[in-house]
Each structure stands twice: as C-alpha cells, then as structure tokens.
Design a protein that fits this description.
The complex is a heterodimer of chains A (about 290) and B (about 375). Chain A is mainly alpha-helical and about 290 residues long. In chain A, about 75% of the residues lie in helices and about 0% in strands. Chain A is globular. The chains are: A mainly alpha (about 290), B alpha+beta (about 375).
Chain lengths: ~290, ~375
Amino acid sequence: MRASLKSEKPFAIGLPALVWQALFFYLPLALVFVSSFIRLSNEGKFQGFTLSHIATFLNLIYFKVIGASLLLALSNALLCFLVAFPLAYFLAFIAKGARNILLFLLIVPFWTNFLLHVYAWFYVLERHGIVNTLLQKIGLIETPIHFLNSTFATMIMMVYYYLPFMVLPIFSALESFNFSLIEASLDLGASWNSTFRRILLPLTRKGIIAGFFLVFIPSFGEFAIPELMGGERHAFVGTVVSQYILGEGTGSLGSAFTLLSALCLIAAAMLLYRLINFLLIPRMRRG
Amino acid sequence: MRDIILKKLKKSINGQAIIPEVNLRIPAGKFFALLGPSGCGKTTLLRLIAGLETADAGQILLGDNDFSKTPIHERPINIVFQNYALFPHLNVFENVAYSLKLKKIPKKIIEQKIFKILEAFHLETHVYKMVSQLSGGQQQRVALARAIMNAPEVLLLDEPLAALDFKLREKMLLELIELQDELKTTFIYVTHDQFEALTVADQMAIMNHNGEIEQIGTPKQIYEFPHSSFVARFVGTTNILNGTLHDLDSDPKIDVPGLGMLKCYFSKKADWMVEGCTAIMSLRPEKIFISKKEAKNFTNQIKGVVHSIVYHGRSTQYNVIVGDNIKLQIFEQNEEHFPQEVIDYDDEVFLYWQRENGVLLEK
C-alpha cells in the first residue's frame, strides 16, 4: 500500500533529526544572516539595519581571500579525486579479501586527534624527517629539502585529511558497478582509455560528484592546515572569519563575511556541478 | 572464413583446474553449441576465446592465426553477455552504435546502419529509449544488434536466453537460427539447456563436470548415438542398463541380470569390447513401445508391471518395473483421443524395441 507509506508515521520518525537540524543549523544560519545586516550599539542594543558590514568586504583584498580559499578547495578536491579513484577502483575490483581491512585502515586516522596528525606529518616532512633521511640514504639529494611551511606541505596534509571523503562515495559507486559493462566495452573495440571515459566515469558520476563536494565544501573553510603546514603566507576565508568572530565587537563583520563567502561558495559549487557533469557525460551523448 | 581451433587450452582459477585441457575445432560459418551442466567451465572457455580471460597454456587459433595473446579489443570476436551488459546511461541507438562511433565512421553511415538493423530486430519504435525501459526480450535484441554491428568473424553467445520465459525463448531461438543463416558468421552458443542446444546447433560439443569435452557431433548424432552415459543422460532422458557383452561379431547382445539377453547396437567395434566384459546400454524412453499384447517384428521384448503413469499432454510417461526391480521409463505419443488400449497401474505389459535403439556406451 503506497498511500500508507506516505502517511505521517515516517515523518514522525524523521522529526528528531529535523528538530536537531533546525536548532543547530537553520537557527545559527539565520542568526548569521540577521546579524550581517544590523547595527548594534557598544552595549549590544539594536540600532537599525545597515548594509555597511557587507560593504566593508566589497573590496578586492577580500575577494582575493575568497579566491584563495576557492583555489585551495578546488585543488584539494582535484588532487583527492586523482588519488581516490585508483584507490577506490583497487578496493572495489582488485583487493578482494583484503578489502575490509583496507577500508578499516582508511578510516582509522579519524579516531585520533587532529593535532597528532599534524605533528606526525612534521616528523615525516621536517629537515631530518623520514622523507629527507630516506632521500639522502638513497643518494638522490645531498642537503635536506625544505618541505615544511610550503604549499606542498599544505596540500599533502589536505589530501591526506580529506581523502576518505572522496574514496568512500566513489568506492560505493564502483562496488555497485556492473563490471561486465567494462568487458562489453573492451569487447566492442574500445581501448582502456576510451572505456574509462565512456563507461566507467559516466556511470560512477554520482559517487564522484558526491565525493568531490564532500571534499570541496569543507576545504573551503579550512584554515588550520594551511596555517600549520604552510606558514602564514596566505589568508583564507576561515582565517578572516575566525579573527572577526573572536574579535571584540566585530561579530557582525564576521557574520557579513561569512555570508558573502558562503554566497561565493554556493555560486562556485553550482558552476562546478555543471562543469563536472558536462565533463563526465560521454562525448557520444553530446553528438 | 576461418575455423576456430583450440589447442591444448588450459585454465585454472585459484589453483583449481577449470579447463584441464581442451582441444576443439569449431567450423567456420556454423552454428556451434557448447552444452554442459552449470559450473562446468563452458563460460570460462567462451571468455578465453573472447579474451576476457587469459589461458594458462595452449593456443586459440583463427585459421592459422594464433590470437591467444591479442588484446580483447583487437579480436574479431564479439560476445553477447548473459546479463546483456547494455550501457545503462546510453539509449538504444547509442548502445548499438557504440562500436561504430569508436571507429570514427561518418555519422550519416552510422545512422543508416543502425536504423536498418533496428528495423530488422523490430526495435524501430524504441530507438531513443533508455535500455532500462525495454522488456527482457527487447534488451536481448539490443545486445545482439550491438554485437553484430561490430561485424565480428565469430559471435559468442553466453546463455543469451536464460533470462527469458519459455515462449519467448522458443521464438528467439528461431530468430537466432535465421540470423546465423543470413550472416554466415560463426556462432558459438553456450548453454546448459539441451533443448536450446539441440534446436540451434549445426554442431555441438558436450562438456562434463570436469571441463572435458565428452562428445562432438550433430545434434542428431549426439542424441541418437551418445558415446557415454554422461552424454546420454545429459542430452534428453534415457534408461541405462548394465550387463555383460556377448557375441560381439555375429549378433551383439548385452546380458542384463534379471532381463536376459538384449540385442544391442554399436557403430564401431572398440578395443574395450571383448566377450563377457561389462557394458552399459542406453535406451531412450520414446524408442520403447508399450502394450498389453505381445508384438512381432521387434528384436527385443521384455515383460514388466506398470508402476506409475504421468500424463504430459503430448505424451504419457509410463514407469515400468522389469526384471530385478529395474525401473524403465517409456514415453508414448498421445496420438488418439480415445486409445483402443487403456493401460493402467499394475497392468502387466510388454515392452519392445529394435536392436539399434539399444546403444552401447563407452563409459
């Protein structure tokens, strides 16, 4: 009976989640929105509406900050995809018996503290760290390379941290993928490259897009990793927001910048969504 | 047109020999059926020919040309998968045109070809539908059309009709025969269904549980003169009788305990046939006549008691106990509405058949 499924009962089941969502997501969002447009006195009294908070940030410097965050998020999502797809493919089609343990290992880092990850990477990348020692032992380099406090170190840590968010959706898309479609494509004369573009990518599109945005959106607000690993060379959206929100009496400015950058993020995400869809749909559909 | 020749082909998966060693010649331009029980390795053999698996040893030749190392997409061979493996993100046209688009054939020519084949396959009203919108039979046709579009020298069919209902299967079998007749492409049809194999094949091979080929021949040869009890039992239904062999050169007989001497047939005397050796005989149920009266002009006649009767519509199956509690099956065509002679449970009956219907088996 379809009608009974649409009755109030399932709605009741979803209600706690909805309340949670309303209290801890929609309400704060509304507060951010409202406080972006109001003026408060030093005592915190309402003094009317204003666009001046927003106007403060309509400045090239701040759009450069947003741009840097978008670039960080985009490059992280792309790098994650490049690493995650082969990994997910391996897990789905080749790993067989080792699959569960490998999936487990992929998730294990989430159980440890974020700062521990950072220190672990310090040990790996520092002057006398594992990588430098190894490269010197092999004889590839003579003097240690300066890895830390660079974009390189930032991106390594970013990819490392966000990788599971990309691997898991792609893995689940590949797992339900009918492997004989690849065989059929090869059998019909397509090369591996062609099969990848025409069959595998379009048919795992949903997993790729899900993974892409699971990485892209949170990396946009990321500021801890670039600060710790990359030094303080660039300001990111997260840096600016935290400064204003934590600052004395600058809460409204923080809200306004949050709102502005969120709008930019939404616009960028929508554009990217269209672009990725366009790229992943096989050429033969486009004629 | 070139024959396909499999030479000493071997394949193991996870240390288990799926195909111990196969030697087989599949004649060019023929409809060849490979019949065997589920899990016997026939699909693996097909996948080896297609290039979806690599053989551990041996050769796959097309004429004189060994292509066992040729990558899959360069073999002049196409396969129709059991689950069809149609591309769900493409419509019927795009599925069928897949191989042509890869070859960068001009759009106009592709369109002409596709519309022609879709019409021939009764799919002209479904050109722009997604494959998920089609029925099982239509999907089957799309899969077939897609494989044929690549103009293969050999078409492999892996249980292509397994997912269809009986009526549709019968219809598709006839369409496949017509198609093969028209294209003259070598078809290799893998199935576990003896009815399908007997219907379509010009030549067929029977594979046993161990992945060995037991017998090769025309459907008629296989059915009428099976070499082994495996073939006799697997293709059709049969009665197997065990006994000892006598009078090989003058008047071959098999002495079945409790039934006495039964005259039997073999096409060629083999080395193992010596006076008094043990032997097996296959006797097809429809070759035996049943009556309450004695009959003349038959080389063999025995007495028995009707144990059970099963009515099948076009025929009736009698299970008759003979000799030392041996149960024989007999199929009688239901030719008359009101048979003159009614046979009932526990009736004493005579069973009779001609010598050539009792076929000696090698093993």
